[in-house]
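FORM 12-B: Structure-to-Sequence Request
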């Protein structure tokens, strides 16, 4: 994967595309937008796609159709796909997505943090599979990485480990 690998966002409603693009912009990944299943397939076949986020319900070629097609081609079968639907939870659709090997299935309205985390993970995983390093912003230090907290850390001794209760009424020791 080269540094210019893109996140493909596909939705037939431009306001939804804008929302997804705004949610993912802080990750710093280049994005390609498509408003139809046909355009999504062309983008994927052209190459350079690290992750695809596909709306399920679109006129003509649906997101599920795109995912099905991508899973059949050698050059696109490693592209992780996130399906997005506004129809609520549909067991049949979820089963079809699982059968196709879709990475995730999200329901609108999207949780911005969940979408961001899933795309970031799949982008990095995609980079790892292809042996390249993804383009990303430098990570911000986590608050627990402060030198003051590092001095307080110590490994737990066996007597300090917590037992997970086996029954809901069983209190932890």
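FORM 12-B RESPONSE
SEQUENCE OUT:
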């Amino acid at each position: 994967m080269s540094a210019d690998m893109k996140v493909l966002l596909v939705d037939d409603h431009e306001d939804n595309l804008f929302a997804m693009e705004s949610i993912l912009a802080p990750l710093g990944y280049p994005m390609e937008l498509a408003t139809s299943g046909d355009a999504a397939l062309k983008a994927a076949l052209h190459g350079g796609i690290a992750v695809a986020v596909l709306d399920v319900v679109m006129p003509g070629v649906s997101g599920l159709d795109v995912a099905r097609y991508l899973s059949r081609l050698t050059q696109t079968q490693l592209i992780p796909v996130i399906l997005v639907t506004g129809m609520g939870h549909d067991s049949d659709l979820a089963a079809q997505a699982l059968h196709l090997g879709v990475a995730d299935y999200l329901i609108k309205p999207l949780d911005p943090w969940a979408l961001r985390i899933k795309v970031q993970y799949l982008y990095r995983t995609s980079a790892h599979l292809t042996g390249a390093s993804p383009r990303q912003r430098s990570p911000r230090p986590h608050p627990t990485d402060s030198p003051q907290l590092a001095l307080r850390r110590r490994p737990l001794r066996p007597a300090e480990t917590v037992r997970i209760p086996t029954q809901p009424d069983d209190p932890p020791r």
